[in-house]
Write a structure and sequence with these properties.
This protein is mainly alpha-helical. It has helices at residues 24-35, 38-50, 54-82, 86-93, 100-128, 161-167, 169-177, 207-216, 232-248, 253-279, 284-292, 302-316, 322-328, 336-369, 384-393, 398-431, 439-454, 462-473, 476-504, 511-538, 552-564, 567-579, 599-603, and strands at residues 2-4, 19-21, 148-149, 182-183, 188-191, 194-197, 205-206, 544-545, 548-549.
Length: 617
């Protein structure tokens, strides 16, 4: 619950009529709700699978320490101290960085567009689960290939040749279609006196994989040149998802703050059931071993480190402006240092925990299909929509579990969207104060615009546009934005002065930790960000989906998408220079408008604790 600041006697200013969190706990849960989402449950597992399992896990934790947590805390402190959104914060810290906040908003705007498509997929699965016979576990659909493999259909098949001939019709039919005499077991056919592995004759694909690729997405033979037809079911789910999101953010944090207690805690119940189910299956240990054991040769590849850095930004939601926005609603003396540590630890735990559910199931499926774990499924955005459904099919009462699980994914995705919409809304309302009384209409316009722009991703070839946007927004471009944030605070404004503001906000820490944050913000984090970006550029590879490498012109569009997130920095930077309001060194110094979020906040702190530079100019 939040309260509106009522101060009719005061003139309108940057802080007037801004909402505040009802309690510190509500803010923590909102940060958890934003940071813990589909990035942990959906994106982390498939990046981990495609980048060597344990090697990626190790790289991720290193990136978490070097970049993730320092930038996460930095953004919370910026927002809480100033009480402003990202578009105003950086122009007050250093006028030359006036466009940096808008870069953050461009990133969150683009992510908000394509991220809701994932939410639409989850709602599709949710509605499709209202049946006792879950379609994603069958191989008798019109779209299934000859090599389709259904683990659920084979669950009662015994290692007995007579039993296979009589009861395991899928395997027996496949062997017959392949010109064999009979089925020996789930992975071998017999021809004459010779037993032949099915995997040497045909590529077997999971029923859940074909369901996602050929039914949900309807990819078929679509390419960039042949984009296919619109998937009306996905379009309907997208509209439904945006409608629910709008109702949740109708009045800003006043309504979204009330939903976070449920949306944060509920997913852990479902994940725990899937983890328990996964680890008890035969072959699960093989998948978990791939997950936890680093492949040291993989660690020498820049792609692994770039993916780990990208996932850190994605799962924490840093350099997107949303965290600054959420923290700007805090009370001045809230202990956001504690909040940052709690949210960072919980975020990392959730990603790792979700990985156990995915990799234990992959190990089981590899055991069933007679394949190595790293070949059992295609890596990519669809992995979570393959492995999780396979786990659900093994649970008693799978229909009920399917409904609950995809409802969980739905609310996780919406939880992240709340903060994205709020960041964009905050930018508009802070820019044009008179629109604050029309907040609900502003949010409606944001949701409707994002819905319209996401419609191309509802076509058969929409997954290619989705991949292109994800490839270029949550990757190299966001590294430069994060680098700019750290440089603006630690080098231009002054890291020691910023650390002193933490003392002003009643956050005390030991000298060792002050030194750690200083070293991180001044040296380690910017050096890591710049290093990852340089290596990404040197070893850049064009976007692709599965085995389809995008054409050069499509990759050029991706580059333009990435560059568009950086354009505000240069455009507004040149505008500030040519306007000549700030000249020379003043372009790199904080302005008189950079101060604590309100005079009321300052009065609550003992004057002796304030530095002269925190007082309003």
């Amino acid at each position: 619950m939040v309260k509106e600041n009522e101060s009719p006697a005061e003139p309108v200013n940057e802080h007037a009529s801004r909402s505040t969190w009802g309690s510190p706990l509500e803010f923590v849960f909102s940060c958890l709700n934003y940071a813990i989402g589909l990035g942990n449950i959906w994106r982390f597992p498939y990046l981990c699978y495609s980048n060597g399992g344990g090697a990626f896990l190790l790289a991720y934790f290193i990136m978490l320490i070097l970049m993730g947590t320092p930038i996460f805390l930095l953004e919370l402190l910026i927002g809480q101290y100033s009480g402003l959104g990202p578009e105003k914060v950086f122009k007050h810290i250093a006028p030359i960085f006036s466009g940096l906040g808008y870069c953050c908003l461009m990133v969150i705007f683009l992510i908000t567009i394509y991220y809701m498509v994932i939410v639409a997929w989850t709602s599709f699965y949710f509605f499709a689960s209202f049946t006792l016979d879950l379609g994603y576990g069958r191989c008798d659909n019109d779209f299934n290939s000859i090599g389709c493999y259904s683990a659920s259909s084979e669950a009662n098949c015994h290692e007995n040749e007579t039993w296979y001939k009589r009861n395991c019709t899928l395997t027996a039919k496949l062997c017959k279609d392949l010109g064999m005499d009979s089925a020996v077991n789930r992975t071998f056919c017999r021809k004459g006196s010779e037993d032949i592995s099915i995997n040497t004759v045909i590529n077997r694909t999971l029923a859940s994989s074909e369901y996602f690729r050929d039914y949900v997405l309807g990819i078929g033979d679509s390419t960039w040149e042949n984009f296919g037809t619109i998937k009306w079911e996905i379009l309907g789910c997208l509209f439904f998802s945006w409608t629910v999101c709008y109702l949740a953010v109708l009045k800003g944090v006043k309504t979204s703050g009330k939903a976070v207690y449920f949306t944060v805690s509920f997913p852990y119940v479902i994940l725990t059931a899937l983890v328990i189910q996964g680890v008890i299956l035969p072959g699960a240990s093989d998948g978990i071993l791939l997950y936890l054991k680093p492949d040291w040769e993989k660690l020498l590849k820049i792609d692994v480190w770039a993916a780990a850095a990208s996932q850190t930004f994605y799962s924490f939601g840093i350099a997107c402006g949303s965290l600054i926005t959420l923290a700007s609603y805090n009370r001045f003396t809230n202990n956001c240092l504690r909040d940052a540590v709690v949210v960072s630890a919980t975020n990392a735990f959730t990603s790792v925990y979700a990985g156990f559910a995915i990799f234990s199931m992959l190990g089981f499926l590899a055991n069933e299909m007679g394949l190595p774990v790293d070949e059992v499924a295609d890596d990519g955005p669809g992995l979570a929509f393959i492995a999780y459904p396979e786990a659900i099919l093994r649970l008693p009462g799978s229909t009920a579990w399917s409904l609950v699980f995809f409802f969980m994914l739905f609310i996780l995705g919406l939880g992240t969207q709340f903060a994205g919409v709020e960041a964009i809304s905050c930018c508009i309302l802070d820019k044009w104060h008179h629109l604050r009384k029309y907040r609900s209409y502003v949010n409606l316009a944001i949701c409707f615009t994002c819905f319209i722009l996401a419609i191309p991703m509802c076509f058969s070839g929409g997954i290619y546009l989705f991949t292109l946007m994800e490839w270029n927004t949550a990757s190299w471009a966001i590294m430069l934005i994060g680098f700019g944030e750290v440089i603006a605070i630690s080098w231009l404004y002054g890291c020691l002065q910023f650390l002193h503001h933490m003392h002003d906000m009643e956050m005390s820490m030991r000298r060792f930790f002050r030194g750690y944050w200083w070293l991180s913000w001044v040296v380690i984090t910017p050096a890591t960000l710049l290093g990852i970006f340089v290596f990404q550029m040197v070893y850049y590879s064009p976007a692709s989906y599965e085995d389809y490498v995008f054409p050069l012109w499509a990759d050029a569009i991706g580059w333009m998408i990435g560059i568009s997130t950086l354009l505000p920095f240069f455009i507004l930077g040149f505008h500030v220079i040519f306007k000549r309001k700030y000249i020379g060194i003043d372009l790199f110094r904080h302005t008189k408008h950079w101060k604590a979020q309100s005079s009321a906040a300052l009065e609550k702190i003992r004057p002796s604790k304030l530095s002269e530079k925190t007082l309003p100019a």
